[in-house]
Amino acid sequence: EIVMTQSPATLSVSPGERATLSCRASQSVSSNLAWYQQKPGQAPRLLIYGASTRATGIPARFSGSGSGTEFTLTISSLQSEDFAVYYCQQYNNWPRWTFGQGTKVEIK
Amino acid sequence: EVQLVESGGGLVKPGGSLRLSCAASGFTFSSYSMNWVRQAPGKGLEWVSSISSSSSYIYYADSVKGRFTISRDNAKNSLYLQMNSLRAEDTAVYYCARVGAAAGLFDYWGQGTLVTVSS
After folding, report:
1. Contact in structure between A80 and B94 (CB atoms under 8 Å)
2. Distance from the A91 Cα atom to the nearest Cα atom in chain B, whole angstroms
3. Contacts of residue A49 in chain B, CB cutoff 8 Å?
4. Within 10 Å of residue A108's Cβ, how many Cβ atoms?
5. Which segments of B1-119 are extended strands (E)?
6. Listed residue (B7, B49, B101, B99) closest to B109, CA to CA
7. What is the mean pLDDT of chain B?
8. pLDDT for residue B73
9. Residue B102 contacts A, CB cutoff 8 Å
10. In chain B, is it the N or the C terminus that has fewer CB atoms within a 10 Å radius of its CB?
11. How many CB atoms lie within 10 A of CB A58?
């Protein structure tokens, strides 16, 4: 099983600031990496797939980068609606897809 | 608009059974693989099971293999999860999720249904 490790567990950021979230895979997942956003009481929402492609309707302030084992999600200027938990997920190891434990982005 | 609506959750005793359903609309259900993903209270996401569009390919996480059965009825635009021999550790919100551009990439999710296994 590929283990996905996210850091930090919690990120405190002020509105308007940049947030950088990290995700590391225990072995290479190529670019088969997705990011999801989850708000309290809601289902996850796909943000990024293919490590860097924004899903339909996702604002340009969200960007993803990386390949192999190291990945980053950047939110360029945090808006109030961006405070949430973010999960990375690998879909390279078929069909044993795995998620990271999540990074909570909270208001500083 | 793509919609996935889960139902069937509830409180069940250890060793009991439950059947979850997911009603799909807004897309051609029979063309997409579907999955169940769960989230224990306050925890992260765990993939549970996958079924291909024609039910030809079915996969399970090791944690549920032999106890859970995924199925679908394309005529009814519905996905199911039969859960038997339930354990306390199966307590979670269960989401159905559509597979998008690649296997294992979940582009749309339902709102989830809570399963609580407790005596």
Report:
1. no
2. 5
3. 100-102, 105, 107
4. 10
5. 3-7, 10-12, 18-25, 34-39, 45-51, 58-60, 68-73, 78-83, 92-99, 106-109, 113-117
6. B99
7. 96
8. 98
9. yes
10. N
11. 16
